[in-house]
Amino acid sequence: MTTERAEPILYLVIPCYNEEEVLPETTKRLTEKLHAMIRAGEIHRESRILYVDDGSRDRTWALISEYSAAIPYVDGVKLAHNRGHQNALLAGLMTAMPLCDCAISMDADLQDDTDAVDRFVEKYKEGCDVVYGVRNKRDKDTVFKRTTAEGYYKLLRLLGVDIVFNHADYRLMSRRALEGLSEYREVNLFLRGIVPLIGFKSDYVYYDRGERFAGASKYPLKKMIALALDGITSFSVKPLRLISNLGILISVLSIFGLLYALISHLLGLTVAGWTAIVASIWLLGGLQMLCLGVVGTYIGKIYSEVKQRPRYLVETHLKPANIRKSEIQEKT
Ligand code: UDP
Ligand code: MG
């Protein structure tokens, strides 16, 4: 075991979008948590909370700067624009990568139980490079959210996407897992789909997810659906294969239809059948539209991938200077 595994520099990476209501409490709780862990010798004293301001329009950045100035444990990164949760998270993880031994990503609203942090770090010390936070049960969710979420995970599995059931973005990654992540250059980000592809030794930590203690969700249904679709279309080409299969099936069926029409014609029964014709026109039209839509989605993705636009731009990083102070001190 390396010394770094014994007392790692831990970064808590927290994307924030208009989170002025939760930040005071979150900062208080997380600072206490880090402080306690440092005192207990579980983590290195250079461990930090790294807030990523995802282009907030409220006082989020002002608060982060204020806390960063007052509290040595708090660091902040401001993105130049609102890029969404997944990109903000990536920005934070990539900023933390050269500074930390391991990083845990979590939401600003502390819905993810912070007591699990100790267990994450324990698993890291046992040699895991990725530790997934998995929700125990979903009894606090609405029936709608629960059934759609669980159905979605099952659908992803069915489509061949390697995904951890009931795991969102509460996870620990070691520095080398983060370096692995940095090699994935896709623009349509769905981190929980990418991380299992990186490999390395991994394990699970089970936790209860509470309710947001202040403010409203920054994930409206529209964003949720967009993320869900990204999860499917970024990791599986099965929908494309499904279309081909559907096309084959319909072609076979239409041969039978044709035979039926020919026989009817030969028997002189052609007057009836208007309904069948109209119905098939609608059916085929509909199917074609659906298939075009799916193909279009993939073309859209190719379009955004080939442009290779940056996924985020860092405007300010408050404490870049503390780059592995211990290492620098050791060398000098
Ligand atoms: N978030 C972000 N950018 C966005 C939307 C959300 O950085 O465009 C952050 C948000 O501040 C929070 C996390 O993503 O820390 C999860 O959002 P939220 O708690 O609102 O989602 P929910 O828990 O309701 O799914
Ligand atoms: Mg939340």
The low-confidence parts are none
CATH superfamily of the largest domain, please?
Spore Coat Polysaccharide Biosynthesis Protein SpsA, Chain A
Work out the helicity level. 40-55%
Discrete helix count: 12
Strand order of the largest sheet: 7-5-6-4-1-2-3-8
- The radius of gyration over CA amounts to 25 Å
How large is the share of residues in beta strands? Answer: 5-15%
The first-to-last residue Cα distance is: 25 Å
| Ligand roster | uridine-5'-diphosphate, magnesium ion
- Order of helices and strands, N to C? HEHEHEHEHEHEHHEHHHEH
Number of strands: 8
Report the CATH C-level class of the largest domain.
Alpha Beta
SSE order and pairing:
Elements: H1 3-6, E1 10-16, H2 23-39, E2 48-53, H3 60-70, E3 74-79, H4 85-96, E4 102-105, H5 116-125, E5 130-135, H6 143-158, E6 167-174, H7 175-182, H8 191-198, E7 202-207, H9 221-233, H10 238-266, H11 274-307, E8 314-317, H12 325-331
Parallel strand pairs: 1-2, 1-4, 2-3, 5-7
Antiparallel strand pairs: 3-8, 4-6, 5-6
Care to describe what's here?
The chain has two domains: 10-220 and 311-331, Alpha-Beta Complex (Spore Coat Polysaccharide Biosynthesis Protein SpsA, Chain A); 238-307. With 332 residues, it is α/β, with parallel strands linked by helices. 51% of the residues lie in helices and 14% in strands. Strands 7-5-6-4-1-2-3-8 form an eight-stranded mixed beta sheet, sandwiched between helices. It starts with a helix and ends with a helix. 30% of the residues are buried. The site of magnesium ion has 5 residues, from loops.
